[in-house]
Amino acid sequence: MKPTILDEPPLEFSGGARHIDPRHGIADYGPADATNTAVRTIRVGIVGTPASIQGLRRWLDGCRQTIAAKNSRLGRLFVPFPGFDTGAGFRSTLVWDSRLERPIRDRDLKRLADLKPQEAIKAAVELYVAELDVLDEEPGCDVVLVARPEYLPERPEPQVDPEAPWKKAPPTEPVDDFRAVLKAAAMRYSRPIQIIRRSTWDPNFTPHGGDKPRLQDEATRAWNLHTALYYKAGGVPWRLPRDSTDLDSCYVGVTFYRRGDLTTLETSVAQVFNQRGDGMIVRGAAAKVSRHDRQPHLTRADAYALLADALGRYRKEHRHLPARVVLHKTSSYTPEETEGFRAAADDADIELTPVSWSS
After folding, report:
1. What is the pLDDT of residue 210?
2. Less packed terminus of the chain by CB within 10 Å, N or C?
3. Where are the transmembrane segments (predicted)?
4. What is the pLDDT at residue 48?
């Protein structure tokens, strides 16, 4: 067998500068959307115990300064974190507000240790959802940090050797965990959440009944968390470079989801992207599950309205319509849906090709 080495694709950053490593690109040039003033400050909410809130804030405040890279023979693997500040790196800063801090009493979480695993997870999610409900009503919040409770069973993290991260870690036992259940429950909120373990901001922490986890170095942890926060707050840290002629194409993905009551199926939306990865989301009308294939489908009118609204948003954002739309849907297409989608494209004088047919 003859191995083939593929070149790293370049990524685009502020001012059109390019680099193959996202970390070097952000540190040297700034994020791809450096001119977007909306993400120069990120207003962060936090849910957790009072001690977790204070400890997490203290660590994140420390991340405003440069964090040295790990000293390793694998020099290119470890990159210094430039600090999350308006004058460096992401060119952005985190903003705290006591109104956006939702403390959960430690004694309420300690009671989880006496419950069966699934009961403990359910009870913990209910505690956190109650606080997320409050934060979702706050107008000045961009993203919510969730400090994971310490008194819960969790899916074991793959034990990756930091000196050989390319080696595949042994599989972990597939079990429901707090992260998965809370993520599902939080899909209805307008603000994204970021769940964080205590070991991320407290390297001396040892889980209850467990061994001290093997951690990534502090600079890498800072890179990973702040990249996630920046992206979830609406920022674009980097993008794939494209020729300007490629921007004539638009990609629309239609997906479905159930509401919080699990009874009403809606179009999660058309997720609209150009080839640079710039995107937006448009919510559509309610869908119905077909008795024939048990898949969600739209009426002709709703399919028309969804694509027409998506193209309208695209035009408002980019100041022009695309010449071509590539449409993909997570369920198969009915004749009525096809007619509706094609009619919307025809009315805008746009080529709807190719359509990705799903079975």
Report:
1. 60
2. N
3. none
4. 95
C-alpha to C-alpha distance for 176 and 121, rounded to whole angstroms: 9
Query: Which residue matches tokens 């840290």?
Result: 237
Give 217-220's long-range contacts (Cβ < 8 A, gap of 24+).
Answer: 217/69, 217/70, 217/78, 217/162, 218/67, 218/81, 219/67, 219/68, 219/69, 219/70, 219/78, 219/79, 219/80, 219/81, 220/70, 220/78
Could you give all domains of the chain from N- to C-terminal order, each with its CATH number? 11-232 (3.40.50.2300), 244-356 (3.30.420.10)
The pLDDT value given to residue 359: 44
Nearest-angstrom CA–CA distance, 22 and 24: 6
Residue 358: per-residue pLDDT:
45
Q: What is the rounded distance in angstroms from the CA atom of residue 218 to the CA atom of residue 80?
A: 9
Q: Which amino acid is at 59?
A: W
CA–CA dist 7, 119 (Å, integer): 49
For the record, the structure tokens of 333 come out as 């297409």
Residue 154: predicted pLDDT? 56
Euclidean distance between CA atoms 195 and 232, whole angstroms = 12
Contact 252, 326 (CB under 8 A): yes
With a cut of 50, list the residues of the chain below it in pLDDT: 173-175, 262, 268, 354, 358-359
DSSP helix/strand/coil, 190: coil
Cβ contact 332:358 at 8 Å:
yes
- Rounded Cα distance, 55 and 196, in Å: 12
- 336 near 344, Cβ under 8 Å? no
Tell the burial category of 346 from Cβ atoms under 10 Å away from its Cβ (0-12, 13-18, 19+): exposed
How far is Cα 135 from Cα 104, in angstroms, rounded to an integer? 13
User: Residues near 297 by Cβ (< 8 Å), separated by ≥ 6?
Assistant: 287, 288, 289, 290, 331, 334, 336, 337
Res 27: pLDDT: 96
